[in-house]
Design goal:
Layout: H1 2-15, H2 17-45, E1 57-66, E2 69-73, H3 80-87, E3 91-99, E4 105-108, E5 111-114, E6 118-121, H4 125-128, E7 133-136, E8 147-151, H5 152-159, E9 168-171, E10 175-183, E11 196-199, E12 217-222, H6 228-232, H7 235-251, H8 255-260, E13 264-271, H9 275-278, H10 291-318, H11 320-332, H12 337-374, H13 386-411, H14 416-421, H15 432-464, E14 474-478, H16 487-495, E15 500-506, E16 517-521, E17 531-539, H17 543-547, E18 551-554, E19 567-571, H18 572-578, E20 587-591, E21 603-612, E22 627-631, E23 637-642, H19 647-661, E24 669-671, H20 672-679, H21 681-715, H22 717-725, H23 730-764, H24 775-802, H25 805-809
Helix pairs in contact: 1-12, 2-10, 2-12, 2-21, 10-13, 10-15, 10-21, 12-13, 15-21, 15-23, 15-24, 16-19, 21-24, 23-24
Length: 812
């Protein structure tokens, strides 16, 4: 019996090749999109799960408010890890990470090569994370000072071998690190990926004992059965014991006074497997994603699959008259309704499996492009596991049943007598359910159109927003601190190049990630009630002019005034928080040494020279925070304001000046606008993915609409012929066939507009600076949907209107 069902199904699919092709292509594209999104979601949910102790690992995160500024941190004080292991038996082990500040130039032959992906790490690193060593002893690899563990890739890069334990690396021309281990390259699905781990014992800061500074990413391994919530509830007692005595020593304020000033310090535990999708805090080890996008893309996959299934239902029921006589004859010859249902379901399931095969081919062809679009490294073998194969077969079966259930029960319900007498209506005109499906289908499409417009506009807004500084035509050089005493000579050489307008040397650029948060006080008593927490950046006199930062009052630093060495320039946000009507020449105070007790000798004072217009140095997801600029000698980066039509030539000249002053040092350059856009790579990738999926969803919807109007024209060919004979114009015929479909699109638009407005407003809440969703967005989406539907319908409508009426009427 099953064999007979399959044979008949194959004959029917082949007999109606056009509609079968539309159904197969629509389902295949829908399933392919679902598979790509499934791979994306699976990859996102799989981060950090390669660790054997993943379920027991938690990161200690901070939530600090001081001086009117709240900071939600992925970092904690350096004593946090050791103290928790010592004081709390639930903690089996800990490991801390610390950024390697400044450049990391590794000597290879006569050249220094710039490397990123460098962290200090405790010797317990390999007890916490599953990072297998191919060479070396994990128990001792990071114990000794100046020891380093490399990835396999770096070992081969610098030594052409992985058997390098005992060899040395020369870093920054002065530091010698002994290679004590080679680890396998870290998995792509890790919230941090490093190539070099330096022993924490090499970093004196790790032994400072300062609870008032948060600079270390601290991870704990809890013993099996331990309750993280119960452990987190003990943080307050730990802070009472260790943190607030230091606050008392530094500020002269008790814990109660500290809290009464509106300040607080709290710490929480974040599970390792939740970091990638649920954590975007200050001090993250890498750029994370957002769980919200997993939900969005999962919903998009379901919607697109629904659209493809709706196409199948609509086309199958619209073709009901073609199958009506077949059903009538089968019933007269004794076929039961159940047999007919199984026959039609067999056809839909067979079509679904053909679509699945085609979808897998589409996925294999599109996966490299999808990886480039999403920034992933997904491999096709992720679909080859036995569980996945069974899941795919189940998916095809479910899609076949879902898409074929309504047509099967609808077609099998025909009454033989009515069918064989020709009483049955032509299948297309009647069908409220089918109209409802079209409305639902285009509601999804319009929702995706609106979402696409909003996402595109927000990303364009980010790219074009006035962020308070001019990032265009600014060439940035990194690691220029290697110049040492030659920094001024380098700047002078650059200023001689035609096309170079200004040059600033600093470690703090708006597009860099290096930051320095510290409190400043309004009076010399360091009263924490009169404190402001802000960024403090070392700059030179040319900083504001090079970056095009505007002054709203006061003046810039000047070499003509020696007292400017104790001057300070603040931004508008800092000025507002200070509360001064006129902040110029007012003084701010800061401890010289946070470890020392409060005393007159330990207090430095600065007078305010000017106030600059707020400029964005954080992501546009966050508002501008207080900032103070002061003169310093930090030359980590150099920004060059240029004005030339021959940029390659100018870069060559800059390189020549560099090589004339340095020897065998890498020349690393970028443009500030590119660095700025790189901050939003994640949003750009997600936006581009969504736009591509939306276009494909609209294509699938149009494919179904094309099939429907084709069949409508076929069913109404005699009506069209009669109307033409009676004088109807081509425009009348096209309007006749288009009117019903366009009405359904308009209804779908009216239903979708409020839902899309709510969803997109919720998405925009993540941005401190965002667009508003005006009525033009909905008008544009509605018009676009109508134009798409009209373009889809018109092709077949015009074709039907141009047909010779004799052909359709000659049998009458």
């Amino acid at each position: 019996m099953l064999r007979n069902y399959i044979l008949v199904a194959c004959r029917n699919l082949w007999k109606n090749k056009g509609f079968s092709a539309i159904n197969i292509i629509g389902l295949a594209v829908g399933i392919a999109i679902c598979l790509l999104i499934l791979l994306f979601v699976k990859d996102e949910l799989g981060y950090d799960r390669y660790n054997s102790k993943a379920a027991q690992i938690y990161r200690v995160d901070g939530d600090i408010k001081f001086g009117g500024i709240r900071m939600i941190l992925a970092v904690s004080p350096d004593p946090m890890g050791p103290t928790m292991k010592k004081d709390y038996p639930q903690v089996a082990q800990f490991v801390r990470f610390r950024n390697f500040s400044g450049r990391f130039l590794v000597k290879k032959g006569n050249q220094n090569l710039q490397e990123s992906g460098v962290r200090y790490a405790d010797s317990t690193l390999f007890d916490v994370f599953s990072l297998p060593l191919v060479q070396g002893d994990s128990a001792t690899a990071l114990v000794e000072p100046n020891s380093i563990v490399l990835s396999e890739t770096m070992a081969r890069k610098y030594f052409s071998s992985v058997n390098v334990v005992g060899k040395t690396l020369l870093v920054n021309d002065t530091n010698i690190y002994k290679v004590t281990g080679v680890m396998k390259d870290m998995p792509f699905q890790s919230h941090f990926r490093e190539d070099f781990f330096i022993s924490m014992s090499s970093n004196p800061e790790s032994r400072s004992g300062l609870w008032v500074m948060n600079n270390f990413n601290t991870y704990l391994v809890l013993r099996p059965g331990s309750d993280p919530k119960q452990l987190a509830s003990r943080f307050d007692a730990m802070l009472d014991k260790y943190l607030f005595p230091q606050v008392q020593q530094m500020l002269g304020s008790s814990e109660d006074e500290f809290k009464k000033g509106g300040n607080f310090a709290q710490y929480t535990l974040t599970p390792l497997t939740g970091i990638h999708l649920n954590s975007n805090k200050i001090g993250e080890l890498g750029a994370n994603s957002d769980l919200k996008y997993v939900y969005i893309f999962s919903a998009t996959a379901v919607f697109i699959l629904f659209i493809a299934c709706i196409n199948f239902m609509n086309l199958s029921t619209a073709r009901s008259s073609n199958r009506a006589k077949e059903v009538g004859i089968r019933k007269v010859l004794g076929s039961l309704r159940g047999n007919l249902v199984r026959q039609f379901l067999t056809e839909s399931i067979l079509l679904s499996f053909i679509s699945l095969a085609l979808a897998l081919l589409i996925v294999s062809l599109c996966l490299p492009y999808f990886n480039a679009l999403s920034g992933k490294d997904i491999q096709l073998h992720a679909l080859s596991g036995p569980d996945t194969v069974l899941g795919l077969c189940a998916l095809a079966g479910i899609v076949g049943l879902l898409a074929g259930s309504y047509p099967a029960f609808y077609l099998s319900s025909f009454v033989p007598m009515k069918v064989l007498k020709g009483v049955l209506s032509t299948g297309f005109k009647s069908g409220r359910f089918r109209s409802t499906l079209v409305i639902f289908q285009f509601s999804i499409s319009i929702f995706l159109i609106i979402s696409t417009i909003v996402i595109y506009n927000q990303l364009r807004f980010i790219r074009n927003k006035d962020i308070g500084f001019n990032r265009e035509q600014v060439l940035v050089l990194q690691n220029t601190d290697v110049l040492g005493r030659n920094a001024r000579a380098f700047r002078s050489g650059l200023m001689q190049i035609p096309g170079v307008q200004d040059v600033t040397m600093t470690g703090f650029l708006p597009t860099n990630t290096y930051r320095n948060e510290a409190p400043m006080f309004l009076d010399p008593t360091l009263d924490q009630k009169k404190a402001i927490s802000l960024q403090i950046w070392d700059i030179d006199e040319h900083y504001t002019s090079t970056l095009g930062i505007k002054f709203v009052r006061g003046r810039n630093f000047s070499e003509q005034f020696p007292t400017d060495s104790t001057g300070i320039v603040i931004n508008e946000t800092a000025a507002r928080l200070l509360g001064y009507a006129d902040p110029l020449n007012k003084k701010l105070y800061i401890p010289k040494n946070f470890q020392a007790a409060k005393s007159d000798d330990n207090i430095a004072s600065f007078h305010i020279l000017g106030v600059v217009k707020d400029f964005n140095f954080n992501s546009l997801r966050q508002p501008v925070t207080p900032l103070a600029l002061m003169l310093g000698t930090n030359h980590n980066s150099t920004a060059i304001r240029i004005h030339t039509t021959n940029i390659p030539r100018l870069i060559t000249q800059v390189n020549e000046v560099w090589n004339s002053i340095t020897v065998f040092q890498p020349f690393n350059n970028s443009f500030m606008d590119d660095d700025f856009n790189r901050i939003y790579n994640s949003e750009q990738r997600i936006g581009n993915m969504f736009i591509n999926f939306a276009v494909l969803a609209i294509f699938i919807a149009c494919l179904g609409l094309f099939g429907l109007v084709t069949y409508a024209a076929e069913q109404r060919s005699r009506e069209i012929g009669i109307r033409k004979v009676l004088g109807a114009s081509i425009r009348n015929i096209v309007a006749l066939l288009s009117r019903d479909f366009l009405g359904l699109v308009i209804i779908a638009s009216l239903i979708t507009f409020p839902l899309a407005w709510l969803a997109m407003n919720h998405w925009l809440e993540d941005f401190a600076y965002r667009i508003s969703i005006g009525w033009m967005v909905f008008a544009a989406a509605g018009v676009l949907a109508i134009l798409i539907a009209l373009a889809t319908v018109s092709f077949q409508a015009v074709k039907a209107a141009l047909a010779n009426p004799v052909k359709s009427l000659k049998t009458e």
